[in-house]
Amino acid sequence: MKWEIAARTDVGRLRERNEDDLLVLNEKQILVVADGMGGHANGNIASRTAVSVLESWFSDSSVPDRMEEAEQAGFEIDLRDAIGAANREIFQLNQGTFSLEGMGTTVVVMRRIGCWALLATVGDSRIYRFREGKLEQLTRDHSLMEELLQQHVLSEQDVLMSPHRNIITRALGMNDSVESDTCWLKLEDGDLFLLCSDGLSDMVSAQAIQHVLMDSEDLESQSEKLVCLANERGGIDNITVVLARTTVSDS
Prior knowledge:
Helix content: 25-40%
Largest sheet: 5 strands, antiparallel
Order of helices and strands: EEEHHEEEEHHEEHHHE
Oligomer: single chain
Strand content: 25-35%
Structural class: alpha+beta
Shape: globular
CATH superfamily: PPM-type phosphatase domain
CATH architecture: 4-Layer Sandwich
Radius of gyration: 17 Å
Low-confidence stretches: none
Number of domains: 1
Distance between the termini: 9 Å
C-alpha cells in the first residue's frame, strides 16, 4: 500500500496572518493539520509548536510494512503520547508570558501503518474519507455545538446558523494534559482522505466537498479547488487542506 499526497494552506480573505499549520512526513507516513487559535495570543505559535513537536517525535521512528493486531495498542499509545508532548510544550509557553497566554491549537493526525491507518483528533479540525463516491466524516468535533447536537438539544440546521459554532471544548495548550480521540481504519485501494481545518468545513458543505473529490482531476487540482471554494464563500478563516489517496503498490 502506498499513497499520493497534496497539501496547501491559505490565509483566507479576512485574516491578516495564517494561524494554521500542516505537516507531511511522507517517508514516515504521517500527516498533520493544526489550527491555531488566540489571535493576538499567537495561535500561529501554538500550531507551529504542535507540528514541530510531532515532527521531532516521529522523525526517528521506524515505519513498519505490516502490523499484527497485538501491536495496535502500542502505536495508539505512542501517538497519544506524542500529542500529549505537544500539549505540554504549548501549555508551558502559556505560563508566565503575557503575550502568549491563552494560545492553543486543534490537531488532527493520520499515521499509515501498512494497510491500516491510525487517526487522532483534538478540537474541531476534521478527517474525512471519500470511498466509492461517498464522503464520510471520520472524526467528531470537540465543540459546544457538537455536544448539543449529540444531546439532541440542537438540530444540524441550528448548528449551521449558530454564532457559537466555533466554540471548542478541547484543544492543545489549555491544560497540562489533554485527551485525544483515536481510531483505526483498514485501508482499501483508492481511499481518498481529507484532513482540513474548519476554514474549509465551515465554508464548504460536505456535499460540495464530495462533488470536488468526485472529479477525476489530480490531487493538486482538487486541493486548489477546495481552497478556492472556501475563499469564494467568504474565506473568513485560514484554510488548510491535505489530501491523501491510497493505492496498492505494484512492487
